[in-house]
Specification:
single chain; 305 residues; alpha/beta; TIM Barrel; binds (1E,3Z)-4-hydroxybuta-1,3-diene-1,2,4-tricarboxylic acid
């Protein structure tokens, strides 16, 4: 059995988050969170760029209940590379209340994709953040996108705002539904109307297959906790411009946070400030994630029209 020590500057996730003042609607989905290990059971990948503390499926499901959510979308964290065993284990323990986004290598077999599908995986993540992963060839990613979209899966893309000009055309041409992590990581010291964020909004406006997570105020904010005021206008703009293509998530257990570790209740309490009507909140937290991750349970009862 291998045991792992977290990086010396690793911040442990908040162990006693408060009770949010905002109560999510019934059936709400935390659509961006992770599990780490436990490392002794599911070793971290040799190629990882960080070693975290453990964050188990049981701990994630306790947080889900504590915050008043019903379901999770668990995104494979880069510390596990393309070894999806911890993710699959978490999905299998969830009683159908979690779906997954995996990491796969370009040569992944059809058999492995089928096994991931059976476990509840519905997407693959392409990560372009240089501090997290080594670069992958674009043509390999293109082929993965073609293959997984045939399974009805989507692609989650994670990138820094400064890299969007170089990646813009590649994203626009990928043959799949895409979901952008954390609004493409805007520089919130710049205005919403500035060129960086307008480029991101243009990507969504021009491509009806591209969605965004309005997540991670704790990661983007310069003004800081507990209200993360400087992130609110960015998230609100995305929610109001693309109400049917937005998702929300905690990002628990908040990998690589260095400035502070958020109280997850404070993140939940931001929701009414970025989605200001019941209708917007229901789309963000229930209708949109259900359409993407549990369509078989959603569409029969909620056919459009
Ligand atoms: C996030 C953000 C980060 C890390 C990962 O998979 C990961 O390691 O996603 C980050 O360091 O910005 O979405 O959790």
């Amino acid at each position: 059995m291998t045991t792992f020590s977290p990086d010396p500057d690793w911040l442990h996730w908040h162990q006693s988050p408060g009770v949010p003042a905002y109560k999510p609607p019934a059936g709400a989905v935390d659509a961006h969170c992770h599990v780490f290990g436990p490392g002794a059971q599911f070793p971290f990948a040799p190629e990882r760029k960080y070693t975290p503390c453990d964050a188990s499926a049981e701990q994630l499901f306790q947080l889900r209940d504590h915050l008043g959510f019903s379901r999770n979308v668990i995104v494979q964290a880069t510390c596990h590379g393309a070894d999806n065993r911890a993710l699959v284990d978490a999905l299998q323990r969830s009683d159908g209340l979690a779906r997954g986004v995996a990491t796969v290598r370009p040569d992944v077999s059809d058999e492995e994709l089928q096994l991931l599908q059976a476990a509840g995986v519905r997407g693959v993540r392409f990560n372009f953040v240089r501090r997290l992963v080594d670069a992958l060839p674009f043509d390999g990613l293109q082929r993965v996108a073609e293959r997984v979209s045939q399974l009805g899966w989507h692609i989650v893309i994670y990138f820094e705002a400064d890299d969007l000009p170089d990646l813009y055309n590649f994203f626009a041409e990928l043959p799949a539904t895409l979901v952008v992590d954390h609004m493409g990581r805007p520089d919130v010291t710049q205005p919403v109307s500035g060129p960086g964020f307008q480029r991101f909004l243009k990507l969504l406006a021009e491509n009806g297959n591209i969605w965004s997570k309005v997540s991670c105020p704790e990661r983007l904010s310069v003004s800081g906790p507990s209200t993360y005021d400087d992130v609110v206008p960015f998230a609100r703009e995305v929610v109001e411009s693309f109400p049917d293509r937005v998702l929300w998530g905690t990002d628990w257990p908040h990998p690589n946070m260095k400035s502070h570790m958020p109280d997850d209740a404070h993140l939940v309490d931001m929701i009414p400030r970025i989605a200001v009507t019941d209708e917007l909140r229901h789309k963000l937290l229930v209708a949109n994630p259900m359409r993407l991750y549990w369509p078989e349970q959603w569409e029969d009862n909620h056919a459009a029209g």
